[in-house]
Each structure stands twice: as structure tokens, then as C-alpha cells.
Design a protein that fits this description.
- This protein is an alpha/beta fold.
- The protein has 3 domains: about 240 residues, Aminohydrolase, N-terminal nucleophile (Ntn) domain (Glutamine Phosphoribosylpyrophosphate, subunit 1, domain 1); about 200 residues, Glucose-6-phosphate isomerase like protein, domain 1 (Rossmann fold), CATH 3.40.50; about 140 residues, 3-Layer(aba) Sandwich (Rossmann fold).
- It has 18 helices and 27 strands.
- β25, α17 and β26 form a beta-alpha-beta unit.
- The radius of gyration is 26 Å and the shape is globular.
- The structure holds 5-amino-5-deoxy-1-O-phosphono-D-mannitol (M6R).
- 5-amino-5-deoxy-1-O-phosphono-D-mannitol binds next to α9.
Length: about 600
């Protein structure tokens, strides 16, 4: 997610811009830039990489300008590079902009502007904004901003400066955050509160469809129709670190709560009624394929197991999901007729990259699913599909995983279309897929008592067992992994039917069993398996659907009524919460579990 800072003041603007960008580093970025404005012109400096690189490239310069805009870019359209980084400047170098969000209709706007004689220098969606401002500018910048924002679809928070008004910053927002602040010397704005806190604790959080005009002596706020709006000032009394966590105590909790939003961002534009929009995969001839492999590590491997399950249900081509660290040594048949799909949040996991190399060597078509634009995996694949989870800072994957699940559901539907395979109950599945952001919201808003009970029961235990059949088995693998990594409780995941073939020997009075029975086809059988553990004294939490008979169970959590193939989303959110609460009760650092790294770049 990009970060924006801007200042219209009576003292040099650069110190505020740079310290603000530093405070926004937690949002993740791959390049940075600033534009300072004076009556003499714009001075723009950009650098790929860290803020320190930007600062180094400015060293020795004189930066007395008192108005400016700054930006850290987290690439969404176009790879990280100096050209794609912000600010973007018009051709006469009189207007500059920074933007956070996605302009969904940037293509038609770009075509229109190119026909009107404008030249583009970047691959970004954002660049259309500066040329539109130029197109509409007739001496009144506020009017140009108003006309421009009217045409932008999607989400944006933007700031603009113009050499004709060297003491003014113009900012506008829709579906992307922007906060304003005022000191005796300056009017300030930024994507998030931490950037302002060293300067002021009184802030205005801009509402959607508002424009603000910042001058050294004050801020004026308007709606998109140009009607003045009274700003609502809030006093902020929390510290910078807390502010970066959006009011949550940990990044993990914040990221869990971001799931409704990032799920909708990931699905945005992908599904329409019963159809899946995924032109990236049109190059595949599914009838040519003799096998399909999903390849990934850890949580991403669980996402692959989910995709494998759907694939096998719908498409009559052999399909395997294999941990990347095993793939290259597994002698799997590989060639131009084997499709390889790699899944990785970071796109930099060494095992996954090594497997990709192997597949490419054999001439296999390679598709990647990743969260990071321009990552090694995305660059080296024949096609890259992106989850829109934004930066994930906590080591334990939460929002990255659920966004992988929904994107993979759409991908497998698309593969079924390419094959010409019939997907039973498709309408309900696609409709429910579109409902997942809402379902996630409901799961987060009302945490069932059973989860807190389960976490309390786990607090002093050394081990726990997660059981389920079919798709529930994918969820128990992920639930057990989450518990292990952040709470250090030994957790095993078993197929419920396998329990009686050995592991049941471990069940004794008080053993914690988390049991999933959300798949109607096998739920009754799972229930019998669970009863076998209860007969041996297990402390069971049952997670099941709305209509499942759960007589005799004390702790029953019912998930919303969704297509069984999507139950994995609400269930995962519950199991994330369970692991989180258990870890917190045990006093663990949930964001930085011991021995683990966010991006595993060694094999
Ligand atoms: O970046 P990747 O998705 O390739 O990372 C793979 C695993 O290391 C990762 O999913 C890991 O298992 C999670 N952080 C666990 O929560």
C-alpha cells in the first residue's frame, strides 16, 4: 500500500515529508519520491528501493521550498522502477501528483488522453491523473481537481501541486485514507496518522468524496461538487507504534481485521454473475495438459491443497499439490503438457523459486499467484495473478492466505471454463464467493464464545489435535500450523477417519480436539469420529454448518450458511482467532514468533 505525505508551510517542507514517509514505512513499499514546488518550478527526486536511497540521492542539494508532496510506492501497475515511482509530472513540468489506490478505468482515460496528444512515461494507472489535471487546468486548480476526480473509478487518495500556486497542496480522497493536520507553520496531510504525530495530535480524517486545499495558514474542505464542508477535528492521544497498527495491539490482529477489505479487493473485477474474468490465463490450452501441479510452501501450500481439491472435483486431468521443497526431488513428469501453478505471498520463497526453475527448464507453462508485484516469482512466470492483500507484516499469514483461497477458487473456475468442464452448483458457488468479504466481516464482528473457551483450554496444554475430512482437512492443517507457529503449542492435524488408525492412542482426559464438520457429504462420519475422542475424555470444540445435528456437543460453533467449498473462509478466520487468543494468553509475541522469518529466502 502506498504512503503519501504533503506539506504547505512557511518553513522547508522536506523534513516533514521525509519523516512522514518513514513513519509510513510499515505499509510496505518498493520505491519513493518527492516533489518540491516554488514559483520557479518543480523539483522531483525519485528512487527505486528504500527511503535511505532517496535521501542519499538528495544529499548536497538545497531544499528551501516550503511546499511539497512525498510518496512511497507499493507497486500495483508496473514493476518497481524510477519511471513508475511517484510523483508523476505533466509534460510542461508545472503540475505533479502522488496517488494511493487503483484507478480502475485508467485504460480508457489513457487512450483518450493519448488521442488528445499526451505522452505517458510510466506503466502506472496513476499517471492518468496528472495529465487529466493538465487537460482541465484553466487557471483554477481546485476546479481542475474537481473535474478530474469525477472521472476516476476505483479508489484514490491523491495530492497535487502546481507551480502557479506554489504555497498550496490539493488533496482528494475516495476509498483510500487521507488525514490532515495543522501547525502554526504549516498545513499537512498524509495517508495515516503516524506521519503527523510528531507535528500535531489534532487531525481531520477526510471522508470519501472530499477535496482539501492546504495553505500555510489553513485548510479548506469541499465535497466533490465544490460545496464547502466543515472539518471535524479529532484529538489523537496514542503513540506512533500503536497508530501504525491502526489501533490494534499487534499487526496480526490488524491484518486479520483487514480481511473483508482485501478479499473484496482481490475479487474486484474478477467475477461477474457466473463468469470469471481472468484473461491472463487465456494462453493455456487445458486440453493439452496431462497433469497440473500446484506448488507452494507452508500456508501457501495449504492454499494449493484447496485448489487441488476443487480442481479434482471439476476437471478430469490429474492434479497434484506438492510442497515446493519436495517438488524438485520428486521426479514428477514435467514438460510443455504439464501446467505448474506456484503460490507464494512474497514471491521470493527460495524453495518455490527453485521449483519454478525446474519447471521452466522442462518447458512447462508456469503461472504464479503472488501478493507482490514484480516479485521474482511473478517476473519469471508466464503469467502472474495477484492477490490484493497489501503488505503483510506479521509473520503468521492471515489475510494473504484467505485472499489466496478466493483467488484460487476463481482460478480453478477459469481452468474449468478453459477445459469446458461443467461445475455443478456454479451459480451458488460464484454468488457465495462474491459474499465472502461480508461473511469475513461477520466472523470478525462476533467472535463466538467457543473460540475463547477453546483458547482458554489450550492455554496450559502442550498439545492439540485438529481433525476434519475432505476440504475440512485443508482447514485443520492451516489451523494447526497457525497454532504451532504463534503459541508454540504442539498441534497435529489429522484426517478424522485416520484417528482410529493410531493417533487416538494419544487422546486422554482433557486433550483438546478442534473438530471440523462443515462438509455435508462427510459430516455425519466426522461426527462419529469426534464422538470416539469424546468417549476418551477429549475436550472438543466442534465447528460445523447451520443444519448439522450436534446433539451431545457442548462447544459448538456454527458458521454461516455458505457453499460447502467456501466454508474454508469462515472456518479459517475462526481458527486464526483461536491461535491468536491462545498465543496472547500464553504471553507470546504473535507478530514475531521465534525461529521464523516472513520471507524464507533459503532452501
Ligand atoms: O511468501 P510465501 O507465501 O511463499 O511463504 C511461504 C511460507 O513460508 C508461509 O506461508 C508460512 O508458512 C506462513 N508465514 C505461515 O503463517
Amino acid at each position: 500500500m502506498c504512503g503519501i505525505t504533503a506539506c504547505a508551510g512557511s518553513t522547508p517542507a522536506l523534513p516533514f515529508l521525509m519523516q512522514g514517509l518513514e513513519k509510513l514505512e510499515y505499509r510496505g513499499y518498493d520505491s519513493a519520491g518527492v516533489t518540491l514546488v516554488s514559483g520557479q518550478g518543480l523539483t522531483t527526486v525519485k528512487a527505486k528501493g528504500r527511503l535511505a536511497t532517496l535521501a542519499a540521492s538528495m544529499e548536497g542539494g538545497r531544499w528551501p521550498q516550503t511546499t511539497g508532496i512525498g510518496h512511497t510506492r507499493w507497486a500495483t501497475h508496473g514493476v518497481p522502477s524510477n519511471l513508475n515511482s511517484h510523483p508523476h509530472v505533466n509534460e510542461t513540468e508545472t503540475i505533479a501528483i502522488v496517488h494511493n489506490g487503483i484507478i480502475e478505468n485508467h485504460r480508457p482515460i489513457r487512450e483518450f488522453l493519448e488521442d488528445a496528444g499526451y505522452h505517458f512515461h510510466s506503466e502506472t494507472d496513476s499517471e492518468v491523473i496528472v495529465h487529466m489535471l493538465d487537460y482541465y487546468y484553466r487557471g483554477d486548480m481546485l476546479e481542475a481537481v474537481r473535474k478530474t476526480v469525477r472521472y476516476l473509478d476505483g479508489s484514490f487518495a491523491l495530492c497535487a501541486v502546481c507551480t502557479d500556486f506554489p504555497d498550496t497542496v490539493y488533496t482528494a480522497r475516495k476509498d483510500s485514507p487521507m488525514v490532515l493536520g495543522q501547525t502554526e507553520q504549516a498545513s499537512l496531510c498524509a495517508s495515516d496518522i503516524p506521519a503527523l504525530l510528531a507535528y500535531t495530535r489534532d487531525i481531520v480524517a477526510m471522508e470519501d468524496r472530499q477535496i482539501a486545499v492546504l495553505k500555510p495558514d489553513g485548510i479548506r474542505l469541499y465535497d466533490f461538487d465544490g460545496k464547502p464542508v466543515q472539518p471535524v477535528w479529532l484529538h489523537v492521544d496514542y503513540d506512533v507504534q500503536a497508530a501504525q497498527k491502526g489501533g490494534f495491539d499487534t499487526f496480526m490482529e490488524k491484518e486479520m481485521h483487514e480481511q473483508p477489505y482485501v478479499l473484496s479487493e482481490t475479487l474486484r473485477g474478477r467475477i461477474f454473475q457466473e463468469d470469471v474474468n481472468m484473461p491472463e490465463l487465456d494462453f493455456l490450452d487445458m486440453h493439452d495438459m496431462k497433469a497440473v501441479y500446484f506448488i507452494a510452501c507452508g500456508t501457501a501450500w495449504h492454499a494449493g491443497l484447496y485448489a487441488q481439491y476443487l480442481f479434482r472435483k471439476w476437471i478430469p486431468v490429474p492434479c497434484f499439490c506438492i510442497p515446493a521443497s519436495e517438488f524438485r526431488y520428486g521426479d514428477y513428469p514435467l514438460g510443455p503438457d504439464t501446467l505448474c501453478l506456484f503460490i507464494s505471498q512474497s514471491g521470493e520463497t527460495a524453495d518455490t523459486l527453485a521449483a519454478l526453475k525446474e519447471a521452466k527448464k522442462a518447458g512447462a507453462p508456469c503461472v504464479s499467484v503472488t501478493n507482490v508485484l514484480g516479485s521474482s516469482l511473478a517476473r519469471q512466470s508466464d503469467a502472474a495473478l495477484y492477490t490484493c492483500a497489501g503488505p503483510e507484516i506479521a509473520v503468521a499469514s492471515t489475510k494473504a492466505y484467505t485472499t489466496q483461497l478466493v483467488l484460487l477458487a476463481a482460478i480453478v473456475l477459469k481452468l474449468a471454463d478453459l477445459y469446458g468442464a461443467l461445475v455443478p452448483d456454479r451459480r451458488r458457488l460464484v454468488q457465495d464467493l462474491a459474499r465472502m468479504p461480508r461473511v469475513a466481516q461477520d466472523m470478525l464482528e462476533a467472535v463466538p464464545d467457543g473460540i475463547s473457551h477453546g483458547a482458554e483450554a489450550l492455554k496450559d496444554r502442550h498439545d492439540a489435535y485438529f481433525i476434519g475430512r475432505q476440504l475440512d482437512y485443508v482447514s485443520v492443517l492451516e489451523g494447526a500450523l497457525k497454532l504451532k507457529e504463534i503459541s508454540y503449542i504442539h498441534a497435529d492435524a489429522y484426517y478424522a477417519g485416520e484417528l482410529k488408525h493410531g493417533p487416538i492412542a494419544l487422546i486422554e482426559e482433557g486433550t483438546v480436539v478442534i473438530a471440523l464438520a462443515t462438509q455435508p457429504e462427510v459430516a455425519a462420519k466426522t461426527i462419529s469420529n469426534i464422538q470416539e475422542t469424546m468417549a476418551r475424555g477429549a475436550d472438543v470444540t466442534l465447528i460445523t454448518g447451520q443444519s448439522q445435528n450436534a446433539e451431545g456437543f457442548q462447544d459448538v460453533i456454527r458458521i454461516p450458511d455458505v457453499h460447502p467449498y467456501l466454508a474454508v473462509i469462515p472456518v479459517t478466520i475462526l481458527l486464526q482467532r483461536l491461535a491468536f487468543e491462545a498465543a496472547e494468553k500464553r504471553g507470546c509475541d504473535v507478530d514475531k514468533p521465534r525461529n521464523l522469518a516472513k520471507s524464507v529466502t533459503v532452501e
